[in-house]
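Why does residue order matter? Because the sequence determines the fold. Keep that principle in mind as you read this record.
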Amino acid sequence: MKSLHKFCCFCFLLPPFILSDATDTITVNEPLADGKTIISSGGTFELGFFSPVVNSRSRYLGIWYKKVAKSAVVWIANRDVAMNDTDGLLKMTDQAKLTLVKSRDTAIWSTNATRLVRNPVAQLLDSGNLVVKDAADDNPENYLWQSYDYPTDTILPGVKLGLDLVKGIDRYLQSSKSSIDPSRGDFLYRTDPNGFPQQFLMNNSLPQFRSGPWNGLRFSGSPGLKPNPVYTYEFVNTPKEIYYKFDLINSSVYSRLTLSSFGVLQRLNWNYRAQDWTVYVNAPADNCDTYGLCDAYGICNIANSPVCSCLDRFVPQSPNDWNATDWSSGCQRRTPLDCQKGDGFLKYTGLKLPDTRWSWYNDSINLKECEKICLKNCSCMAYSNTDVRGKGSGCLLWFDDLIDITMIGDSGQDIYIRMASSELGTGSNKAKKIGISLCLVVLVLLVLGLTLNVQKKRKRRQAEHVSGEASTGTRSTQYLAEEGDKEDVELPLFELKTIIQATDNFSRDKKLGEGGFGPVYKGTLVGGQEIAVKRLSQNSIQGLDEFKNEVKCIAKLQHRNLVKLLGCCIQEEKILIYEFMPNKSLDFFIFDHDRRRFLDWPKRFQIITGIARGLLYLHQDSRLTIIHRDLKADNILLDIDLKPKISDFGLARIFGGTETEASTKRVVGTYGYISPEYAVDGYFSTKLDVFSFGVLVLEIVSGKKNRGFSHPDHHHNLLGHAWLLYKEGRCPELIDAHLSVSCHLYEVIRSIHVGLLCVQQSPDDRPSMSSVVFMLAGDGSLPFPKEPGYFTERNLSFEPDKSSSGKKENSSGNALSITLLDAR
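Structure:
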């Protein structure tokens, strides 16, 4: 055990002439030189210079325990930049910056001052926290800086290990390279806010150990974390902060949480009788704590040999590998899921819950409602409670393979995993099902004769309307060819009388609104299918061009996030027939104070990612590259499940071959969504749509329109406002108040970050849509966004009308000249 301790803390040498002035404060006029220390008021901690080993010239500034025989360094300022002599000096500047300098006044470390104060000082508190503050102000809320926000490899009681989402601070542990080298090592222990928050021990970027999510009592993968006489603990998860901390019950006890240089998280307590540090708990504790040891749907049980097996009713993906004790391929259901035929859930008990980084949660939903939500979503793989206290509460859903499951026993949790319906019944139940099925077959045979005549009559009636509802596309191809377009487009043709009947002769009661080139009506075909009818306004030359363009573009496209064109009518009038979207468009919800509450964060994020996938298809995955050129909230339709579909391709531009960009003298689009290079120079590429997408993301998150946005502190538009908040670490202020309950803050802030990358001034700086999709789905680091387009404060005494067309207008501002010919 003693051999272990030398790796748990730094042994350090203090020179024999070390002096202490018995003060706990550094002032502007009283710096701290090497050879002197300051001591906290209660004598618990000491701050000064030290060397990790004998005869080493390397000097570090650190904090250590003062009253114990085998002291331990708990914080180091300059862990990555050692001083090679003893002339170091720690001083306080007039600007409230605590600065460590070496010979010739060369600064090697300093704090960041958030504001100026009259009398700045640095004080070592008896908690071990080094704080920068005004000498006359002891309020912790007013500290200018504190070492508690920047732990090294150790946290003390009261340190919040996790994220301050308002200030943008991530408090985590990082191991030292070795017992004699305190510079940053390979291991980190940090809070991961993705999905349902949990904590990870990482080796560089690879997970080594996972705490499991907090279940109201403890982390689900830490059964040893129980009420004890030494310390209390808590986990806080709010929109402003996510953290774990512990506090001592008895202040005379010394306890710390340390990440060793070899990647073990240890709680160490000082043993007064043995006069030594003793290990209270280790993590990982055993082989089953190794992250993902048994891979997907495998379960680790340390009491078994081998430790890995598949969950009940699952089988190995690769039996040969499993027989060779290679479990990396994981397991699979022995009966595949069939959502359309009806799946169910099987209860598993006593487990460490799987990795929750790809999960969704809501603390206000009960388990019954949780099951219903999961059952309706074919991508939902499992559900559980978020809180096990009492009878359990909250809802936690998984949307990916279940990884890192461990058998814990009585301290474990219940989880309900999606299974094929055939896996849920007993043998007798299956027999009953077979009997019921046979009865149904007989019943069907008896009814079949009666239904045949009905079907024949229905087919006759449908045949009478076939020319009006589903003719071949020959005439549509011929029409486009006659108009000078040689595109090979085949599209079902509808007769005008069919459309008139479906819309009650274009009744006002059936009118849904105005589209890009005319009114849109709801219609119902004879067979009961609901449709949306887009009617070209008479005498509209521009509308006729858009009509032909939309037929050419969308007839070639098939994607779940693009609206489906069912056909067209070219008889007497020009009409497009689309699938009907019962939830209208995104702007109907997102910009309405009452209706936008129906769009919680999971739905909004679903809309954001759906639009991104639709654009990726247009730009990259379809046969031809298509630039939409009019992406806006009005043109995002929502289906019955509030999934997005991009619509209105009247202004779209098709590129063939290697073409990816073009310019035009006729600038078309919508104020607030078009990019600067398009508005000014008529230049457009796929990055035009990327810019519009970024605007949409910020509008979806905030519930505010970019165009017409105002703020009392400045005259920037929504893009500029979002960028200013991002720079100042105040992103939560941008979020729609309706999202306070459903919002997963890390995911929302990441979406804001991606949106700001998309609206950068230069098209070269904006990511492609393939990168956008990757960034939204991943959790890697993102580049800092540059200034957004139109980042000039507006003169609000002049705002152009929402629509303008006709003559060219030039509006000169501080740094931008806008040219718009046809804005919508």
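The first helix runs from residue 2 to 8.
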